[in-house]
């Protein structure tokens, strides 16, 4: 992939489908961590994600795409697959449903009307160009169009020191604030380094 480091003239966000699988695969094999996880970390159990890392997780994600499941969005910078965000109904992410720390203390929307975004990955040649922000904006509209009444993200809680790359995978609190999200209390706020950011869509 050619190095960018300049603002792309065109950014196009598309859902991951079977037809775009090769683009997704090219993006995820460009770095070590995505190539182990394949964005399956939140979708099953921690044990499964670790035992299946690499090819097992790739196969699991490919199966979801083959089944037509809505799993995420790809951002193309001037036609190049450059960034990704994992989204879907909150119920699609098994680890969220089992985590009191990432479950809001209160919520008036029916559970099936809540969508989540759990991970962002931007190719190293396209970082700091606003692609994660573009993806989040597109994800909000994508969820709204599919009937979501609320949308949640789970960034790492703000810290004094600069956030490292692994901690940035869920997105940053600043980018959620910029997109109109607000922090909400969780059922177990002291049990996670992450926080819940929420935006009502209706």
The backbone outline, from C-alpha atoms, is globular
Q: How are the strands of the biggest sheet laid out side by side?
A: 1-2-3-4-5-7-6
Low-pLDDT runs of 5+ residues are none
Q: Report the structural category.
A: alpha+beta
* Strand element count: 7
Number of domains: 1
SS summary, helix count: 8
Assign the CATH topology: Aminopeptidase
- Largest beta-sheet characterization: 7 strands, mixed
Gap from first CA to last CA: 40 Å
Q: What portion of residues is helical?
A: 25-40%
Rg on CA atoms, Å: 16 Å
CATH class: Alpha Beta
The overall average pLDDT, rounded, is 91
In terms of DSSP E residues, the strand content is 15-25%
CATH superfamily: Gcn5-related N-acetyltransferase (GNAT)
Helix-strand sequence: EHHHHEEHEHEHHEE
CATH architecture: 3-Layer(aba) Sandwich
Description:
This protein has helices at 21-28, 32-37, 46-51, 55-66, 94-97, 131-145, 165-168, 173-178; strands spanning 11-15, 72-77, 80-89, 114-122, 150-153, 182-184, 196-200. The chain is 30% helix and 21% strand. The protein has a single domain, classed as Aminopeptidase (3-Layer(aba) Sandwich). The chain starts with 10 loop residues before the first strand and ends with a strand. The protein has a 7-stranded mixed β-sheet with strand order 1-2-3-4-5-7-6, sandwiched between helices. The radius of gyration is 16 Å and the shape is globular. The protein is an alpha+beta fold and 202 residues long.
């Amino acid at each position: 992939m050619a190095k960018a480091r300049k603002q792309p003239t065109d950014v196009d966000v598309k859902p991951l489908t079977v037809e775009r699988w090769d683009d997704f695969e090219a993006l995820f094999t460009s770095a070590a961590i995505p190539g182990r996880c394949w964005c399956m970390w939140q979708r099953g159990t921690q044990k499964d994600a670790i035992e299946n890392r690499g090819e097992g997780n790739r196969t699991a994600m490919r199966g979801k795409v083959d089944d037509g499941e809505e799993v995420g969005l790809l951002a193309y910078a001037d036609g190049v697959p450059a960034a990704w965000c994992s989204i879907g109904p909150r119920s699609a992410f098994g680890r969220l449903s089992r985590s009191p720390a990432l479950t809001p203390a209160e919520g008036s929307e029916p559970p099936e009307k809540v969508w989540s975004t759990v991970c962002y990955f931007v190719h190293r040649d396209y970082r700091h160009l606003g692609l994660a922000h573009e993806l989040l904006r597109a994800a909000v509209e994508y969820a709204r169009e599919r009937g979501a009444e609320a949308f949640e993200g789970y960034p790492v809680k703000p810290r004094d020191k600069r956030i490292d790359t692994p901690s940035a995978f869920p997105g940053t609190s600043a980018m959620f604030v910029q997109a109109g999200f607000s922090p909400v209390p969780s059922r177990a706020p002291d049990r996670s380094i992450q926080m819940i950011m929420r935006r009502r869509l209706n």
